[in-house]
Amino acid sequence: MGEERLQKYIARCGVTSRRKAEELILKGNVKVNGKIIKELGTKINPEKDIVSVNNKRIFEKANNIYIKLYKPEGYVTTVKDQFNRKTVIDLINIKERIYPVGRLDYNTSGLLLLTNDGELANKLIHPSYQIYKTYEAHLKGNISSYAIDKLRSGVLIENYKTAPAKVNLLKAGKVSIVEISIYEGKNRQVRKMFDAVGHKVVKLKRTVFGTINLKGLEKGQWKYLSEDEIKLLKR
Ligand code: URA
Q1: Ligand 1 mean position to 42 CA, how many Å?
Q2: Cβ(27)–Cβ(21) under 8 Å?
Q3: What distance in angstroms lies between residue 107's CA and the mean position of ligand 1's atoms?
Q4: 29-33, long-range: CB within 8 Å, 24+ apart, which pairs?
C-alpha cells in the first residue's frame, strides 16, 4: 500500500471516525514518528510511519481470519472436491474465503487450521520452521520398542528418510496407540511411517498443531483462534 491521508489511516485503525480523527489532528493529539502533526492533509506511509493518538501507538486492524476446526473423518481438506465429496469448508459457515493450512486425509480426524493469511500458512507448513504436529495413531498389532526407536530416528518412505520424530507409546496391545509428533508434511506421512515399521494405521487423529490444540472443540465444531492463540502461533 502506498501513502495514505493521516485521518483516513486513523479511522481505518478503528480508533474513531474520520471526522473525529480530523479533530484530534487539529487539537495536536496525533503524532507521526514522534512529532505532532496538525496539518489535515498529511500523507503517511502505513508500512513505515509510526502513528500515535494521545501518545498511544495505533495499528491497522487485522482483517485476517484464523480458525481451528475439529475435522471429522469423511471430509476432504480442499476448498472444492472434484468428486463432490463433503469438504472441510462445508463445516464453516462464514462468508470470507479461507483455506486449510496443510492437509488431513479423508479418513483422518482432528485439528485443522484455516486462514486467509497466506504468509503465515506457508510458514506453518514449511519444514524449515520445524512446527511440530502431533497425531494419535491406532495401529494394528503390538508395536515393539525397536520399531518405536526406528520411528524416532527416521524411517524410509519412498526413498525419503523422515526427520527425527517424537514418539510415545500410549497403549500396547492387539491395537497399539501411539502419539507421534513430526514437523514434515509429506503426503500421508504418518500412515507411511507406520507402514515402514510394519504396522497399519487403523485410526488417525491430529491433536496438536504447533501451539494450538483441540481444547474446547467437539468433532465437527470450529472456533476462531483467540488473540493469545494467534500471538503464540505467529511467534
Ligand atoms: N499423516 C497422515 O498419514 N495423514 C494425515 O492426515 C496427516 C498426516
Answers
A1: 53
A2: no
A3: 9
A4: 29/53, 29/54, 30/6, 31/55, 32/6
Q: Which three cell numbers stand for residue 160?
A: 525419503
Contact residues of ligand 1, CB 6 A cut-off: 104-105, 108, 188-191, 204
Mutate to test the pocket of ligand 1, among 109, 135, 182 (most ligand atoms within 8 A of CB): 135
pLDDT band at 1 (very low <50, low <70, confident <90, very high): low
Q: Which CATH superfamily is domain 132-209 in?
A: Alpha-L RNA-binding motif (3.30.70.1560)
Four-way CATH pick for 66-127+212-234: 3.20.20.140, 3.30.70.580, 3.40.50.300, 3.30.70.3270 = 3.30.70.580
Question: Across the beta sheet with 56-57, what order do the strands follow?
Answer: 35-36, 30-32, 51-53, 56-57
- pLDDT on residue 62: 62
- Which residue has the least CA distance to atom 3 on ligand 1? 188
Positions marked catalytic: 105
Plot region of 25 (φ>0 → left; ψ -120 to 50 → alpha; else → beta): alpha
Backbone torsion region of residue 159, taken as left when φ is above 0, otherwise alpha when ψ lies between -120 and 50, otherwise beta: left
Q: pLDDT value at position 47?
A: 86
Domain map (residue ranges) of the chain: 4-57, 66-127+212-234, 132-209
